[in-house]
Amino acid sequence: MVHLAAISNDAMGKRFELVTDAINCRASVAVAQAAAQAGVGHFVFASSCSVYGAAADGTPRSETSAIAPLTAYAHSKIDTERALAQLDTDMVITCLRFATACGASPRLRLDLVLNDFVAGAVANGTVEVLSDGSPWRPLIHVRDMARAIDWAVSRTPAAGGQFLFVNAGSERWNVQIRDLAHAVGVAIPSAHVAISTSAPTDNRSYRVDFSLFERLAPEHQPQETLRSTITELRDDLQRAGFNDGDFRQRSDFIRLRILQQLVDTGALAPDLRVAA
Known about the structure:
The chain is of the alpha/beta class and about 280 residues long. The protein has one domain (about 1-265): Rossmann fold. Helices cover about 40% and strands about 15% of the residues. It has helices spanning about 10-15, 15-35, 70-85, 115-125, 140-150, 175-185, 210-215, 225-240, 245-250, 255-265; strands at about 1-5, 40-50, 90-100, 100, 125-130, 135-140, 165-170, 175, 190-195. The strands form three sheets. It has a four-stranded parallel sheet, with helices on both faces. Strands 4-6-8 form a three-stranded mixed sheet. It is globular.
């Protein structure tokens, strides 16, 4: 079983903080318990490198490093990991601490840092960085996330133990935000890169050590490159005629906006359950 469902980023976790724990943690553990009772052999949980939070010294964070979750989303992920570790089950449980997702996909999201930069470059001719650009962030293409999941659903306890949490990504995808923005500018030369040099530093900064994942899953390592990811996103958006300069406020590709709209219209209750 692969469990991906969640309130899926920091902005949504902040807006729906009261239900983030219920959905991301308690419901996830309940799903795992039901899977164990049904005789499921493997349980894969989509965790997050955001559990490392602030790592101001720049040292890459490994699975043995201290965690410092800064948001409701990050707290929900580490709380779920801890609960899954306590389950009395024969299931092989893998918590994949994914880097920040990016890349083109059939269900595109633009509320992800690289996707946002490319969308802004295509629609507005501007790559807008709302911080000073100094934070480090690891990224992973959605196709490479699928490769990691493919490994996790079939790994044996010999590859990491009955219960495992592991950073899923690649060292070459540890990127400072300003360098990420400039990479988009190189791929889309018509776009202007605007960095808010006077903005407060974003405390969510961390580099990640992926050496354990490389050792355990050598045949399932990330294959995508930053350059090809940017150009694929650019080409897909241009092919679709994407020109919504106000996409952050009104685009259907922003999940928070859609959830808020469903709550406002009464389709969802404030706890995000389907309204009666």
